[in-house]
Specification:
- The structure is a single chain.
- 24% of the residues lie in helices and 31% in strands.
- By secondary structure, it is α/β, with parallel strands linked by helices.
- It has a single domain, classed as Ribonuclease Z/Hydroxyacylglutathione hydrolase-like (Metallo-beta-lactamase, Chain A).
- The strands form 3 sheets. Strands 1-2-3-4-5-6 form a 6-stranded mixed sheet. A 6-stranded mixed sheet has the order 7-8-9-10-13-14, with helices on one face. The chain has a two-stranded antiparallel ribbon with strand order 11-12.
- Helix 1 crosses helix 3.
- It holds the Pfam family Lactamase_B.
């Protein structure tokens, strides 16, 4: 696993197993994605086990429930600032209705009634540097999907996942724009990284960028 990065994976929401990451960077503790609603207590327990350092930032790779669902509770409990790309901010804050494609199951949509809105503190843009990571805007899965890259590790959000041992792109039925998702995946495949930290599934460690390109036919 990437140095100073801890993964909380298999966060339950029916058959969806999302990942939340705790990043220790100097004196900062950053959470990348919070998982589903009700997960804040688990994240706090994990950070306490690392010495009890206070969470200073919550970075969301996109607005979907299984990634941002506990952002409101975790921010309220810790005072951590919430970072999200400007294109997804209206959906995280609840100011606008999320643009779900018609292929999303009704039961998934109904789960959003359990999600608390939170007003983002920092709006991200492509090329921003946050806590040593470069923000890469990769629209397609959602309008404001992002990845985070520091040269060694790539936090891919749902743009690259690992399911049943296979490296895959974003799940097409949940993509806001399939064509843009494919374009964004192409951008990520041009990067070099040793560790892949996917939105779903176990991390890929060691020459990860080459493994991703080989798996996805590039």
């Amino acid at each position: 696993m990437a140095e100073r990065v801890y993964c909380i994976h298999r966060l339950p929401i029916e058959q969806v197993n999302g990942n939340s990451y705790i990043v220790v960077s100097g004196g900062d503790v950053i959470v990348v994605d919070t998982g589903v609603p009700g997960n804040a207590e688990r994240i706090l327990k994990e950070t306490n086990s690392l010495g009890g350092a206070k969470i200073s930032a919550i970075i969301l790779t996109h607005y979907h429930l299984d990634h941002s669902g506990s952002a409101a509770d975790l921010s309220a409990a810790t005072g951590a600032k919430v970072y999200v790309h400007e294109a997804d901010a209206p959906f995280v804050s609840g100011r606008e209705r999320p643009p779900f494609p018609p292929t999303v199951p009704k039961e998934t949509l109904s789960a959003y009634s359990y999600m608390k809105p939170v007003e983002p503190d920092v709006l991200l843009r492509d090329g921003d540097i946050v806590f040593g990571f470069r923000v890469i805007h990769v629209p397609g899965h959602t309008p404001g999907s992002i990845a985070l890259h520091d040269g060694r590790a790539l936090f891919a959000g749902d743009n690259i996942n690992v399911r049943d041992g296979a490296i895959q792109g974003s799940p097409a039925p949940y993509d806001w724009d399939n064509a843009k998702a494919k374009e964004s995946l192409g951008r990520l495949l041009e990067l070099e990284f040793d560790v892949l930290l996917p939105g779903h599934g176990p991390p890929v460690v060691g020459n990860a960028s080459e493994k991703v390109r080989r798996s996805l036919g590039r």
